[in-house]
Amino acid sequence: MATYRATIEWRLNDGEDFPNGRYSRAHTVSFAEHVVPATASKHVVGKWAAPGAVDPEEMLVASLSNCHMLTFLHVARLKGFVITRYRDAAEGVMEKNAEGKMAVTRVTLRPEIDYAAKRPTDAERDAMHHEAHEECFIANSVKTEVVVEEVVPA
């Protein structure tokens, strides 16, 4: 068992109008060894979002992509493949879910993977992605549909 911690800190700035919703959503997310500037999504709060900061929806998409990549690298290594590059242009969609609530309902991972020497067959590649998805701790923690569409060079 492991425990993970994050500290979220926000403060009202001088001159902001909290009762009327006129305040910056800029805040920080602190982890054991680093601090990340964060905000609410500009799609949700418009001009009150902090430029140059990451929002929770982006962090969710990145977390799913990151976990899948790390798990895929491990799976591929155990199967005898050598990966030299992995890039994922992941995309999340926020919309109303079946209960009528706004949620990130689908995350599509689009990894582009370079291999040294032998490449997996389509069946081997699909099986490795499936295994990575099944073993990914973050994917196992959310209700969001996660789809993998590997971009394979011609």
Description:
- This protein has 154 residues and is an alpha+beta fold.
- Helix content is 27%, strand content 27%.
- The chain has three helices and eight strands.
- The strands form three sheets. Strands 1-2-3 form a three-stranded antiparallel β-sheet, with no helix packed on it.
- Strand 2 and strand 3 form a beta hairpin.
- The N and C termini lie far apart (43 Å).
- The model has no long low-confidence stretch (mean pLDDT 95).
Q: Main attributes?
A:
alpha+beta, 3 helices, 27% helix, 27% strand, 3-stranded mixed β-sheet, elongated, 3-stranded antiparallel β-sheet, 154 residues
Brief sketch in words of this structure:
This protein is an alpha+beta fold and 154 residues long. It is built from three helices and eight strands; from the N terminus they run βββααββββαβ.
